[in-house]
Every structure is written in C-alpha cells, then in structure tokens.
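User: structure tokens for Adenosylcobinamide-GDP ribazoletransferase, please.
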Amino acid sequence: MAISDISVLKGAFRARDIAVAFALLTRLPLPHFHFPTEAHRPPARSAWAYPLVGIVLAFIAGGVGLALTRMGATPPLAAAFVLITTVMLSGAMHEDGLADCADGFWGAWTADKRLHIMKDSVIGTYGVVALVLSLLLRWYLISELITDGALVWALIVAACGSRAAMVWVMDSLPTVRRDGLSNRTGRPGALATAVAVLIGVLLIVAAPVYSAWRLALLGLVAALLVRQIAKRKIGGQTGDVLGATQQVTEIALLIGCQMMAYGWQAIP
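Assistant: Done. Predicted tokens:
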C-alpha cells in the first residue's frame, strides 16, 4: 500500500469518529470533547462507527435483561426493562423518526406537505399506531428470545445491523430538508458506508447461533423497503427516515433471530 493510500485511510477513519457517533446516537453521559472544526469533513464521515454504537447499547440492554432474569424476573418483565433501557440510551430518537415518517408519509398527498407534517412536533394517528406496533413487536420478540436463551446475540445483531442500514440509506439517498439534522450532518461517503456495512455483515457472520445469509437478507429487504418508500414519498431522506430505517430493520432482524430459534435454520 502506498503512503498516499495510508494517508487517505487515516483521514477517513479517526478515533474521534467513535466519540462523535456516540454523542449523536446516544444519551450516554460522555465527557465533553473539544474537536477542531473541519469544514471539509462533515460529521457524517463518522457514520462508519454507527454499528459500534449499536453493539455497545445492545451489550448494556442485554446485561440488564440477563441480570433481571437471574434475579427471578419473568421473560416478559425482563423484556420490558430491556426495551426501556434501549429507548432511554438512545433518547427515543429512532422511535421519533418512525412516528414522524408514519404521520408524514401517509398524512398528505404531496412531498412538501409530508415534510411539513414530519417537522411538526405533534404526533398523529399514524405515528401513534407505528410506535405502539414497534414497541409491542420488540417487547414480544425480546421476551421470546429471553425464553430461548438467545437474548444478547440477537440484540447485538439487530442493533448493529440496523445502524449499518441507516448509514447505507443515509449515503444512497439525497437529503431533502436544508434545515434538517441529516443535511447538517452531511453524507458519509462511499468508504465510510462500506465500512459500516462490512462491520454489520461481519458481526452477523460471527453470530454463533444464527444463519448469516438469512439475517443479512432480512436486514437488506427491510432497509430497502424504507428507502424506496422514502424515495417515492419525499424524494430522499431526512433524519426521520434514518430513524425509521433503524426501527424497521431492527424489528426485521429480531424476527429473523426469533424464527431461527424455532427451526427456520432447518430450511435450506
């Protein structure tokens, strides 16, 4: 590898990217970092580290679930606290994106009106339904995974894979709101996107109890579904679209993990 190629890689991946990713995607009490402003390098270049954030959050939430289970909590009760932990650690930002997309995409007939609804802080019927279904589905799936003794790996696969999917949608669609968080964050670029996806795929492959290609396919289909709906409804992506991508992909991956516990892996 040439010296110039090494310089490019050093410029693309920095330790500060991990701190930036955690600061953006979590509400963890992190120390304040003083980073110099780099006009030529948007914050989205740290997106390659988004899957790493998912791994850490999954470990914390999974630890809560295992601890409660060993203390005698039933799987449904432990699952509820796993879900609460996940929502608190992320600040419910992905849930907010899912609700806003549900309201906007199906609450108006034009892209401009959809974007206006998505920006409104008031939640509508579609948003409430989407949130309730998302929380119920994840609570049920987590409860089943606790019963099957496969909680931690399933959470890691879902959290890591869904955040890798966010990066892909973030890079593959243009931003459509000039004053939105996604536009201020910028585009991650092909290299950061490739690394994020690679981390997600490698982790799925490393999962000891799951079939890699089925889970990877489920994650891809879920992310592609949200991407295509967003492209058709508003012509691109916003921060809300990325949040919805994370939620839908996470649910799809949890469903895949739970199905495998009931014999899906026996299907060729």
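User: Anything notable?

Assistant: The chain has one domain: 21-28+43-261.
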